[in-house]
């Protein structure tokens, strides 16, 4: 009786695994067909554009300086922890709750040629890493935009902001 039960159970398992077809192949076929249709439409549209495109003479290229984006400024009372020469407007590229993390980023930036500084905001208990410091807001905004452009793949640097030092 036990052998008959095991044999029946095994037969049920074999039938269960062999009778079910994966629906993955149907999805794959539909995807490939849609992709081919999309490529064919793009090729047809491209041919139409090429045939009807008017001839345009190129104008001389004139380079203009990139506009400085409007820069919101945070006002904070901070004190200089490490580095030298903190001015009114600064470009902040990192904020940390732990001083060792701020010092690590400062060392990295110093190694890349910056004169980074670490300041401390006692109200928020945060250490700010400053890349550069300026007397005017416009200079700081331009430096922030240049810094962000230098590191387009660093998301942490893309969040750089301006700090106005309150005394």
UniProtKB/TrEMBL annotation:
GO MF: peptidoglycan binding
Domain SPOR: residue ranges: 83-164
Signal peptide positions (record): none
PROSITE patterns xrefs: PROKAR_LIPOPROTEIN, SPOR
Alphabetical list of InterPro entries matching this protein: SPOR-like_dom (IPR007730), SPOR-like_sf (IPR036680)
Domain of life: Bacteria
Gene3D superfamilies given in the database record: Sporulation related repeat (3.30.70.1070)
Protein name (Swiss-Prot/TrEMBL): SPOR domain-containing protein
């Amino acid at each position: 009786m036990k052998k008959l039960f095991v044999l029946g159970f095994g037969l049920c398992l074999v039938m269960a695994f062999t009778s079910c077809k994966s629906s993955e192949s149907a999805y794959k076929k539909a995807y490939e067909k849609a992709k081919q249709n999309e490529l064919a439409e793009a090729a047809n549209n491209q041919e139409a554009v090429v045939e009807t495109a008017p001839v345009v003479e190129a104008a001389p290229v004139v380079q203009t300086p990139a506009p400085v984006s409007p820069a919101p400024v945070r006002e904070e009372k901070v004190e200089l922890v490490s580095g030298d020469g903190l001015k009114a407007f600064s470009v902040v590229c990192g904020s940390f709750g732990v001083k060792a993390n701020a010092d690590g980023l400062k060392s990295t930036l110093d190694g890349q040629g910056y004169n980074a500084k670490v300041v401390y905001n006692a109200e928020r208990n945060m250490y700010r890493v400053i890349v550069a410091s300026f007397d005017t807001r416009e200079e700081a905004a331009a430096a922030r935009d240049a810094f962000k452009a230098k590191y387009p793949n660093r998301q942490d640097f893309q969040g750089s902001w301006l700090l106005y030092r309150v005394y």
